[in-house]
Amino acid sequence: MAHTHEVQRSASGRHRKKLALVLTITFVYLAVEVIGGLVTGSLALLADAGHMLTDAGGLLLALLAIRYGERPPIPQRTFGYYRAEILAALANAVVLIGISAYILYEAYRRFQDPPEVQSREMMWVAVVGLLVNLAGMYILRKDSGTSLNMKGAYFEVLSDMLTSIAVIAGGVIMLYTKWYYIDPILSAGIGLFILPRTWGLLKESVGVLLEGAPKDLDVGLIRDELLQIRDVTGVHDLHIWTITSGMAVLTVHLVYRAEADAMMVLKQAQELLEEKYKITHTTIQTEREGSVLHEEGLHE
């Protein structure tokens, strides 16, 4: 049996400064948007402020998760604190779903009696928000695929950018038509826009916590390729799961011909997994045909 492990830094940990910068500008604009929403009476602005609050909370959770995730392993936590990043992404998704539900409820209530909104001021606040969100997207776009936290942060800023555009459009409509129903309609649209993307993040986070196989790895294909290694006659107890974003773990039992070199079989398996699938944390047990371990494996 052999283990390979390469000390890795969590994917989002490599982008701490970018997350901190986006968090700072998000908090600044959040304060501006809350004040603007209260002064103008716009539910759309307040709804977007609620979404910005979850953005800020999600970014803060991501940064805290990075801090814990980079702590070294201890005897009680042999994988360290990498899962803190996944817990942060899960909490972020749950909060976003709650905020979306509240926005939809408040939009329904206001649609029955829409109040007058100071449209011009609302538009200017939304324009500032658009610029802030475009800046945040530019900062995070390149790294949005490296981890669930970075992906979640990017989706939040992206959705805020789109809602800022919607709020600007709504302000134009109210300014020239005085049709104030557009404000709760936009608010409901914001809530509905958030939900499907948040649901995807929630499913992915739960999938990691349930130790499902990474979605970008085909377990059946990996099994077949291990079977194609010279002198390998059987593969069983193959398990692949994710510790945190970009860090897959694999365990497997390989059965080899009695006359073969076990260390050569092991080396070929490690090279295949590391070079083709980037799986560097593996536990591979080799079993000679006819051995007790091999016979036990046949019945599992």
What does the model show?
The structure is a single chain. By secondary structure, the chain is an alpha+beta fold. It has 2 domains: 2-209, Cation efflux protein transmembrane domain (Alpha-lytic protease prodomain-like, Up-down Bundle); 219-298, Cation efflux protein, cytoplasmic domain (Alpha-Beta Plaits, 2-Layer Sandwich). The protein is 64% helix and 11% strand. The chain has 9 helices and 4 strands; from the N terminus they run E-H-H-H-H-H-H-H-E-E-H-E-H. The radius of gyration is 25 Å and the shape is elongated.
Give a quick precis of the structure.
The chain is an alpha+beta fold and 300 residues long. A hairpin with a 2-residue loop joins strand 2 and strand 3. The chain is elongated and about 85 Å long.
Helix content: 55-70%
The CATH homologous superfamily name of the largest domain equals Cation efflux protein transmembrane domain
What structural class is derived from the secondary structure elements?
alpha+beta
Mean pLDDT: 79
- Biggest beta sheet attributes: 4 strands, mixed
User: How many distinct domains?
Assistant: 2
CATH-defined architecture of the largest domain: Up-down Bundle
Low-confidence stretches: 3-12
**CATH domain fold name of the largest domain:** Alpha-lytic protease prodomain-like
Number of strands: 4
Regarding CATH, which class of the largest domain? Answer: Mainly Alpha
Task: Determine the N-to-C terminus distance.
Answer: 18 Å
- How many whole angstroms does the radius of gyration measure? 25 Å
Shape: elongated
Q: List the secondary-structure elements in sequence, H or E.
A: EHHHHHHHEEHEH
Strand order, sheet with most strands? 1-4-3-2
